[in-house]
């Protein structure tokens, strides 16, 4: 029969381990929810068109050679004052690849991707800039012209020429599987989904080796951290068991 003191120590040890496990589980659940949650817009949309389809958008130069590649899903969040309804409206619009035409231009340090949809009523433009000193590129400008559903408002436009997003390295493609939100202006934000793009030094019609964004890297760290924590718990439980067993045997030694 196990001595009362030994049994008490084992119960206390198990309770301590259960408390540690509960705290770690709560902490990792909170960390996972924070990391995985998609970025939110400033105004809640009144409609949800669902996740946009990914489209392949290419730009060719004068020699009919592909100089910019983009593969991504795009969603517009347009906020305006509806005069007919007398309130602020946020329209969420998916860019549909099957009705979108891509065009643009490529220069040594500047590349432009222009997407036109709905019989040219919507034009979404991205401008990428290359820093030749650091061999880094980034999205430096985004603009949109379109029409909204309120006929009294009609045309909508927004532009930001001081962006610093979607940063990549020359000769490599930029990739980000996680959803991101690009804030163009107070009235426009763009959600991007599963982005892969390369605006400079495209070889043929294929992406270069991909460099993943920080969001993807952080997301990959979560299962590694959780796995390491679980392994640590298993080790602690095993160690406590071995120590308890050794003490138990020592308590029954004959003198």
UniProtKB/TrEMBL annotation:
Keywords: Cell membrane, Disulfide bond, Endosome, Glycoprotein, Lysosome, Membrane, Signal, Transmembrane, Transmembrane helix. GO terms for cellular component: late endosome membrane; lysosomal membrane; plasma membrane. Pfam families: Lamp2-like_luminal, Lamp2_2nd. Disulfide bonds join 176-213. Residues 222-253 form the Lysosome-associated membrane glycoprotein 2-like transmembrane domain. GO terms for biological process: establishment of protein localization to organelle. It is a single-pass type I membrane protein. The chain crosses the membrane at residues 220-243. Residues 52-202 form the Lysosome-associated membrane glycoprotein 2-like luminal domain. Residues 1-29 form the signal peptide. Its main location: membrane. The keyword Manganese does not apply. It is found in: Cell membrane; Cytolytic granule membrane; Late endosome membrane; Lysosome membrane. InterPro entries: Lamp2-like_luminal, Lamp2-like_TM, LAMP_CS, Lysosome-assoc_membr_glycop. Belongs to the LAMP family. PANTHER family: LYSOSOME-ASSOCIATED MEMBRANE GLYCOPROTEIN, LYSOSOME-ASSOCIATED MEMBRANE GLYCOPROTEIN 1. This is Lysosome-associated membrane glycoprotein 1.
């Amino acid at each position: 029969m196990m001595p009362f003191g030994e049994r008490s120590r084992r119960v206390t040890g198990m309770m301590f381990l259960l408390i540690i496990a509960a705290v770690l589980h709560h902490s990792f659940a909170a960390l996972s929810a924070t990391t995985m949650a998609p970025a939110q817009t400033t105004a809640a949309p009144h409609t949800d068109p669902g996740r946009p389809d990914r489209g392949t958008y290419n730009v060719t130069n004068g020699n009919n050679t592909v100089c910019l590649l983009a593969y991504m899903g795009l969603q517009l969040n347009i906020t305006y004052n509806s005069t007919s309804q007398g309130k602020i409206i946020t329209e969420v619009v998916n860019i549909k690849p099957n009705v979108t035409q891509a065009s643009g231009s490529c220069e040594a340090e500047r590349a432009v991707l222009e997407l036109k949809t709905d019989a040219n009523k919507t034009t979404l433009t991205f401008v990428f800039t290359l820093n030749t000193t650091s061999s880094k590129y980034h999205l430096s400008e985004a603009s949109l012209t379109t029409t909204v559903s309120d006929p009294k408002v009609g045309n909508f436009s927004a532009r930001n020429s001081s962006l610093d997003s979607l940063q990549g390295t020359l000769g490599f493609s930029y990739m980000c599987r996680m959803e991101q939100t690009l804030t163009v202006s107070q009235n426009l934000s763009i959600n991007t989904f599963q982005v892969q793009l390369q605006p400079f030094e495209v070889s043929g019609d294929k992406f270069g080796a991909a460099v993943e964004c920080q969001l993807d890297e952080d997301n990959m760290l979560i299962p590694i951290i959780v796995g390491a924590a679980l392994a640590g718990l298993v080790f602690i439980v095993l160690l406590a068991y071995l120590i308890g067993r050794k003490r138990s045997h020592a308590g029954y030694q004959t003198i």
